[in-house]
Design brief:
four-stranded mixed β-sheet, 2 helices, 101 residues, single chain, alpha+beta, 4 strands
């Protein structure tokens, strides 16, 4: 599974990239044959002001479907990544279930 990681205003560290890849592999590996592309974008909306403003957006394309995306916000970027990975797994499962019916 090819995962592209892009930080907007926040450079992706090796630790963050490893966390993103590990979490998405856990959530999406069973769908890897159906996933054409996975792009993770994250940013800090308020910068140094603080607050619940770290955003992680996971965009993906399934074979036979158009592009889809899920998003999560949290005060901690790692938590936002975790939440977005779970949402992405659920969304892919739902799309494939709907396509089967």
């Amino acid at each position: 599974m090819n995962i592209q990681i892009r930080g907007i205003g926040i450079p992706p560290t090796e630790a963050l990239a490893a966390h993103i890849e590990r979490r998405l592999a856990f959530s999406l590996s069973r769908f890897a044959a159906r996933l054409e592309r996975v792009v993770v974008r994250f940013s800090d909306l308020n910068g140094p002001k603080g607050g619940c403003d770290k955003v992680c957006r996971v965009g993906f394309t399934l074979r036979g479907h158009g592009p889809e995306a899920v998003e999560a916000r949290d005060a901690d970027l790692y938590s936002a990544v975790d939440q977005a990975a779970v949402k992405a797994g659920r969304r892919v499962a739902r799309l494939l279930e709907q396509a089967r019916n």
